[in-house]
Structures are given as C-alpha cells and as structure tokens.
Amino acid sequence: MANGSEHNKDRLRANSKKILTDQMAFSSTIDAMFFLVMISIAAVMLMPSIMAENQYDAAGYTAIQEFDTHLLESLLSSSSNEFEYEIAPLSVVNISIPSNSITQGPMKTLFGKEQNHRTFSDVMAESMALNLMMDNNGSRVYLNPIANEHSTATTAMMQSYLDAKIGGRYNYRFEAHWYPVSGFSLGSDIVVGDTPPTDAIRQSAKLTLPFTYVSSKNDIFEMVNDSVLADALGNSSNETMHAILYDGFNDSINVAARGSAEMIVDSIFPSEYLNSLNNTRSGMQSDQLGIISTPDNANILDPDFLIAIYLLDHTANTVAGLDIEIPVDIILSGMVTKVEQEFTDAIQEKIAFQLKTDMADEINSTVNGIIDSTDFGNAQNLRDVQVGYIHRRVNSGGVDVKLMLWQ
C-alpha cells in the first residue's frame, strides 16, 4: 500500500509540473480577460448615447402626450369661424328644383344653415342628435333622413381643424360616438383620420348632450322596491319567489327602455312641426312655382306636405317596422300622434328586448342571491346593485370623444 501511495504522489507532482509549464492555459486566460476589458470600455463609451436615445424617446412621448391633451381641450372649447350645411328635403321625395326656378333663393334661405362662432362641442352635439341611426335588417338607417348632410359638414370641419393644428407633424384619428343605450345598435358616430396603431397616444373626454332622460333611477327602482322584495321573500313557494323577482326586474328594464325611447323620439321626431301643418292643404300648381321636374307631379301638394308625409312614412314603416298607410292629401293630427306613439313603442320594445337578453344571466344570479339571503338588508343590497346596472345601461353619460396621435 505504501508503494501505491508513493506512486500516486509522483503522478500528481508530474501533472502539476506539466500544468505549470503549459503556456496555452495562461494565453487563453489572458485573451478572455482582455476581451472582457474591451467590452467594458465599449460599454462605457456607448452608455451616453444609449442613455440619450432613451431620453429622446421619453421626451418625444411626453411631448406627443402633452400636445394630444392640449389639442383635444382646444378642439372642444374652440369656436368655428364658419360652419355651413344644407338640408335638402325635396331630394328625398324625388323632386328637383331647376337652377332658374324662382324658388331656388327661398329654398336656400329656408334650408341652408350657415352658423358662425359656434363651438366645436355644440356642432358635434347637434350632429350626434340629428344623425342617430338604427339597425334595420342588417343595415343602418337614419332616424332623421333629411339631416345627414350635417354629419358630412361636421366631419369636414373637424378634419380641416385638425389638419391645420397638427400641420403634418403627427398622424391622427378623431372619434365621437353616442349610443344612448349601451349595447344597443341605435347611435351616431363621427370618425376622422386613419386607423391608429396599438401604441398611439390616446386622450378621451365626455361631451354632455342637452337631453333630459325621462325615467329616473327612482322610477326604475320602484318596480322592484322594498314592498316587492318583501312580498317575494315572504312567499313559501320558491317558484313564486322567482316569478315575483323576475317580473320586478323585467318591469324595471321596461321602465328604463321607455325613458330612453321617449328621449330619443323627443329629440328626433318633429311632432310640433308636423302638427302645425294640420288641416292645411295647398293648391299651388307646378307651373306656378316652377319646382316640379317631372310631368307626373302635375297636381302637387305643397313641398312642406311632401316632406311631412315622407317623414311620417319613413319613421313609421322604415325605422319602426310598422305597416301604416299615410294619407297623401292631408296631415291629420291623430296620424302624427299615432306615428309618434307607435314609433316610441317600437323603440322601447327593441331596447327592452336587447337589455333583457344581455342581462338575463346577471339577473338570474341576482334573483338566486336574493332568495338565498339570510337577512333582508343583504337582499336590498343585491337589488340595489342590479338596479344600478340597469340604470347605467340606459344612461351612457354623453358622447365619448377620443383623439389619438402617433408618429
């Protein structure tokens, strides 16, 4: 064993001596250290430029963000020096006016609108109201078919303002959306600019509209008040409890939908104007006015009546989906009231159906939670939360305005 131990020691001494005399190992180590030193020097030399680039990027981002905020505020508060649009109601009833007609001047006076020194917010709010559209068998139709020129003029005005202010420094996208009932297809939009990238700077604001919502939160609450809650929870039948609570929440949705429908119709349906034409008929002939472009209209009504009849027919049969025959020789007060009422009923029905469909699962969960509650206070809290959800669906808070900038 002693000889073996001595032999191993001799081998270790030999190997150690070989390593000490091996120049390759030292050379590789020196090369590696030299490489690390060079990397460190390069990093020190490049660090200022790297930091400066990051600083430039951060400063550029901040500058765009501040400019976007300032531009949106300016846009909403500034006044337009000139805003002009023309409502051309005779075109929708297929009547054209010869260029030399004596009515050309009066028509321009009556239906041409030139408005100076109005704020962009006012013009946008007006455009949102006048250009409400609703889904109709897969396509969108205007509730007010003779005012869509307003949207075209508004879009052109916004684009002109943004082009002048931005001056080509940035790309932009401006959007304004008003949907009186969240999730319901009825609404209006203004879109100017290109599709923004995901990293675009975005600023948003709310634009209040001068409309009064007819049904309050208390009206919605009343359909499932404490008496309804107590009546449901005091019943021994689980099925009856479910039915009472479901009916209460569905009635709340009906009230909310009615309030929205009445607000929409009140803002868009010209009932006062239509009623002002009641029992009036004009016997003016086409050769007297020179406004008729086709011989088929030799015995024509006053253009006001043609427009009124068109609006009633469009509202009742195109938008509301009804089947009402509109008399072509007289505007009856009862007919105006009938169309307005059925128009409101139709919109209410569509809104209520959409809300009940969308909120079915959460109402089911709320009803089950109320029934399983161990105390009345907890049941009230669950009811209040659900009523709040319903109320928020029909009170969007105004027009959503967004401005996006990117380089």
Can you put this structure into words, describing what you see?
This protein has 407 residues and is an alpha+beta fold. It is 60% helix and 12% strand. It has a 4-stranded antiparallel β-sheet, covered by helices on one side. It is flat and about 115 Å long. The relative contact order is 0.13.
Cα end-to-end separation: 83 Å
Overall radius of gyration:
36 Å
What share of the residues lie within helices? 55-70%
Pattern of helices and strands: HHEEHHEEHEEHEEEHHHHHHHHHE
User: How can the largest sheet be summarized?
Assistant: 4 strands, antiparallel
* Residue windows where pLDDT falls under 50 for at least 5 positions: 97-114, 281-300
| Number of DSSP strand runs | 10
* DSSP summary: helix tally: 15
Give the overall shape. Answer: flat
User: How are the strands of the largest sheet arranged?
Assistant: 8-7-10-9
Mean pLDDT: 77
By secondary-structure content and strand pairing, the structural class works out as alpha+beta
State which percent range the strand residues make up.
5-15%
